[in-house]
Fold:
Amino acid sequence: MSIALRTVQLANFTRIKALSIPENRFYQVFAPLSNNPTAPAFQASLPCKIGKTGSSQSKMSQIPGLKLNDGNEIPMLGYGCGTARYKANPNAPLDQETVKTIVLGINSGYYHLDGAEVYGNEPELGQAIKESGLPREKFYITTKISGIKVQDTKQAFELSLKKLGLDYVDQYLIHAPFFAKGPEDLQAKWADMEAIHASGKAKTIGVSNFLKPDLEAVLKTAKVVPAINQIEYHPYLQHDGLVEFHNKHGIATSAYAPLTAVVKAKPGPLDGTYEKLAKKYGVTPGEIALRWVLDQGIVVLTTSSNEQRLKGFLKVSQFKLTSEEVEEISKIGKQKNFRGFWQDKFAADDWS
Structure:
């Protein structure tokens, strides 16, 4: 739950149909033309212009982009640098295995790279970008300030830039609201983020792991509306109206841990549904899990050190679930509650 407000119940929201775009949503979904004859085809209005020569380019160029409320565009499929390669001691020598893994992701066609201060591997992320040999503008780079400790925002940001070896990041997020003792702390931190945004060194600013009360506190004083909220999101944790709140206020949603229902939370009520749909579309259950997120207009982050698996995930640009299938997964998913992260901050039966 949110700081000092974790027991507040979220209001009842009307469930949004898959792929519906509310009139007051301040960002646009751009989706590729489906290559699957069984799925409704729809043409990309503006394909994401991030790519590389070779087979990966044709795959990655089909990944849709999401135009945010600040006018910037984010690729809707990204590579997460945290879970598999978290480094407990950020001052330890450069981990070449982590560098190698991130380069593998880049070479597999992922140029949207999601990092964070608390992952401890910003130097490795920066080194991987250098070793890729690609120009900076090919990448969409995210990093985050810690959300569990009080620190000077500007100093933390400048240190992240130094570790990454970059002059700017495409997206800078507050990793979590748990550092705050009250709404005023969230508002002050957001004012710091707005100053960084104004400097031009962070093209987009947003938050992560914020719930409705946290966002409401920020919005009361914000001059710049958060562009995105990165949250754990999968069928077993749909957050009871949070995505609808995002849509109402023009805040995009980004999903980490989208494969939870086919990995950590297995077995579960969706196992049969995933298998059925995977057989229908000729893909894996994991690719169905990713497509379910994308078909709701939500950015999805995934990771792996397996090259074939990473390239397989790019198949999500080649098919589309029907709205009925998206709804089926959503409905069945609500039969189980599973949270893979921040478990110490929430009760076991908390669905927020």
Observations:
- The chain is about 30% helix and 15% strand.
- The CA atoms of residues 20 and 153 lie 37 Å apart.
